[in-house]
Amino acid sequence: MIAPHYARPVMRSCGAHSTFVRIEPDAAAEIASELLPGEGFAVLEYAGGWAWGFCENDHVVGYVEAIELAAPSPPTHIVCERCAPVAADDLVTSPVLASLPMGSRLHGTEQGACLGTEYGCVSLSHLRRIDEHDEDPVVVAERLIGTPYLAGGRSFNGIDGAGLVQLSLALCGLAAPRFADEQRGLGEPIADGVPLRRGDLILFDGDSGLMIDDLLMIHACPAAGKVTVDPVAVLDRPGLERRRLSF
After folding, report:
1. Which domains can be identified in the chain, with CATH numbers?
2. Measured between alpha carbons, how far is 66 from 58 in angstroms, rounded to an integer?
3. Which percentage of the chain shows pLDDT scores above 70?
4. Contact at 8 Å (CB) between 137 and 208?
5. Mean pLDDT in residue range 28-40
6. Could you tell me the pLDDT band of residue 93, with boundaries at 50, 70 and 90?
């Protein structure tokens, strides 16, 4: 690529609240993806209150509101449940200040049964150390059943099918692209006639899901408006692709 000049990215990270990555510097613009707390964002340009750059984990390019970015800190823990309440201190009677979505990366110090962070205290029962992983992405996806469908979303506030697959695999230590058409490069194709099994990846109509067993699939369904479980047979149409992942 030829350009008048090249910019060295300035590494930032998402602050206490998840923020949308948009295709234009406008709060009403289409959502490309969602940056979760603690995830890195490489800034190439600041203008008009917006930062243009790319997500460190999956290289999705877009605009985020600059005020939502903070100085990066090396994460020590990651939220592994649907969401993690943040309290002012480690007392069970303390009010909840906020909730961090699954996949949020935190830097803190373990204090008894809690992690002390700059945002407040988070119960360790909602977290894993950053170098520990779940073993079954389907179990991870099932924690988000009922989450509203949102194109471009990646959190319990709203998620799409490819985001659900990406997030579920990430908590199992498996990097996956953000978009369904890119996820077609994961794993190996399953030949016709070979039975499906738990954890198989299903791609269809620009979206994706994971098999629970040989018949049922979990996915973020636009028609249902939420993360749900459906028989994969209802999606058996031209263009449907089945792929086997290695865990």
Report:
1. 10-70 (2.30.30.40), 77-129 (2.30.30), 145-244 (3.90.1720.10)
2. 19
3. 96
4. no
5. 98
6. confident
